[in-house]
Amino acid sequence: MRSRAMSSLCRLAIPLAVMLLTACAASRTVQYEQVQMLRAETELPSEALLDVGILLFDPGVPEDAQAPDGLVFPEVRRAEARYLPVHLKKTLEASGQWGSVWVLPERSDAVDLLVWARIDESDGLEVELRVGAWDATGREWLNKAYETQVPEKAYSSYRDLSQDPYQNVFNEIANDLVAARARLDSGELRRIGEVAELRFGAELVPAAFSDYLAENDGRYQLLRLPAVDDPMVARMRAVREREYSLIDTLNEYYDGLYYELSKPYEDWRRMSRSEMLQYRDLKRSARIRQLLGLAAILGAVAYESEGGGNSAITTTAIIGGVEGLKSGFGKSAEANLRRDTLEELGTSFESEAKPLVVEVEGQTRRLTGTAEEKYREWRRLLHEIYASETGLISLNDAPGDAGQVSN
Length: 407
Fold this sequence. Notes:
Elements: H1 2-26, E1 52-55, H2 74-95, E2 101-104, E3 113-122, E4 126-135, E5 140-149, H3 167-182, H4 186-204, H5 206-209, E6 213-216, E7 219-222, H6 231-305, H7 311-347, E8 356-360, E9 363-368, H8 371-390, E10 404-406
Parallel strand pairs: 1-2, 1-3
Antiparallel strand pairs: 3-4, 4-5, 6-7, 8-9, 9-10
């Protein structure tokens, strides 16, 4: 009888012990296969060198979020949403596959290809991004989740420092964009540039350019091209160049922020990775210790219910089970302390929006507010310039409440 009870206890405890050893060993194993970026080996035709705009990433947290949600820290995510698109820009530039590549605070019709991403997970150990890309005709190029696990060597100070610890994800995105472009012929690629230019003109002054395009459910079709010597087109192109100038200035700001954040952000990711591994190990260990403790107690109860007459065995099993539970709860408390460490790291990682000084028609303007507000105010100024040069009224001339501007 006693042997059957003890056998029941062993049947419960031994598999759980194996689970404990296996789980603790597996938790440290990070599978990693390096993804090589496709670089242009020959000079590409001009129509293939599309201009790319990468929107600031969606941080994946509510705009008004202040407190951590589990292991997600709003301050870190908002900084990542400005840092990661700059590195994606640098990756695309290094590939030699594209024309100009910019980071944009919001959607612009001045670019040929627009890339958007949301951060679904990022803790230094694992990263997952949802990425979408659409060209100026409204054609979808990408709509895909990218994820990877980061090995410890990715944070080595001896690595190529131009390679981000999340570089696999950036290389996959870059390669998929090249693959999507390869599915289009030269005529389709050229059409993208033409539509992008006319969409910019139609957004600037609809009355002058909207008749060149037809829009249906987000897809744009070119109806006809304006005359080569059309003075309206020449003025529109001049304003578009001013748009590019402002985007260049904004990207100098984003680049500065990128380099300012590089060291603290990498330190945070490296420490977060280590903390995350330990946190998971402790949580896993705590759960299994609690199960082992519960199994010991259940075995003691089973032994008693089957008529076991040795009270020492029952007492020992119960005491051992209680100690297992206490040990498990202790591990849970230690895991919570690790989570608190992550929170402390996150709350110390913040960035500020700085004023931006630009020159418009020989006058120095100081744009304040967020990058998005600066950009909206700049677009408003461009509409004013175009209206004053052409005598046409833009639908966007009315001052908005997005930003502030002063001489």
